[in-house]
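Let us walk through a complete example step by step. Step one is to write down the protein sequence. Step two is to encode the small molecule, nicotinamide-adenine-dinucleotide, as a SMILES string so that its atoms and bonds are unambiguous. Step three, shown after the inputs, is the structure prediction itself.
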Amino acid sequence: MNNENHTVAVLGAGTMGAGIATVTARAGYRTILFDIDEHNLRRGIGTVHGFFDKSVRLGKLDADDGRAAKEALSGTTELAELGPCTVLIEAVVEDLAVKTELFGRLDGIIAESALLHTNTSTLSVTGIASGSRYPERVVGTHYCNPAPLMKLVELADGRHTAGWAHRSTAEFLASLAKTAVVTEDRPGFIVNRFLIPWENSCIRALESGLGSKEAIDAAVPGALGQPMGPFRLLDIVGMDIHQQVATRLYEQLRDPRFFPPPMVDRMVSAGDLGRKTGRGFYEYDDTRLFGS
Ligand SMILES: NC(=O)c1ccc[n+]([C@@H]2O[C@H](COP(=O)([O-])OP(=O)(O)OC[C@H]3O[C@@H](n4cnc5c(N)ncnc54)[C@H](O)[C@@H]3O)[C@@H](O)[C@H]2O)c1
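Step three: the predicted structure of the complex.
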């Protein structure tokens, strides 16, 4: 794929949308971030800019490349502005009705050959594609969080995904320097079948007093080679998202390891969702979604 000839839309400017937009803008794609909420859109763009600024400060990114990546990104709350986009990546709230309605609204807007990607964690790609007049173009691409740092993306076809759409999607992911792993359109794909029970067991260990959050966060990556501890990761994921994903997987798989421990409900009720609210397991000075 020639990155300069494509405009990518990322729909939803939350944790994942901002992360994915960081990746596409950095790869040289003109990127339009879309959200229905002006505040969330501005926060998403601020997060992407903050990530590039910090990368330049740390010497991980050349200043010109940082400027170019920031210039590649724009934002809108108008769906009609996504008309020129050739790849549209949906990362809005994990709600089937919202996602199908959004795909239906895109029918009259998108170009004939545009690819429609969904970043759903627990919903069926086929179910989401049923909202579109073009289910053959809908592909599941499940990015790992934080998207700018994690290479892995799960690639899942829906029942009606066309072979060309799958191949073009694999090519697109390669152009982002992502490693694609093909999985079936099943609840949780591969990664969340392992990640969610693991996160829940770390929370249960904390609840039972096995160690402090700092101790568990230090021990687990050290011993298991993980890039970060479970509570730092959960603060980036968002406790509301963890609760939703864990509950949905429990409902579908009926395996108690997926059931969210009581601490999750208490933190969500208290609004301690993680980085996005400034407090989760840890406290944060700013509510950028990732990156500092
Ligand atoms: N958080 C994670 O670790 C993670 C990882 C992989 C996949 N996912 C999936 O990615 C998707 C987004 O998750 P998130 O964590 O970024 O959520 P989030 O709550 O941080 O952001 C969701 C965004 O969607 C926006 N939105 C809601 N309805 C919309 C609509 N109709 N059109 C446009 N924007 C709309 C909201 O305003 C919000 O900004 C979900 O499907 C989730 O399951 C999340």
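Step four is interpretation. The chain has two domains: 3-183, 192-277.
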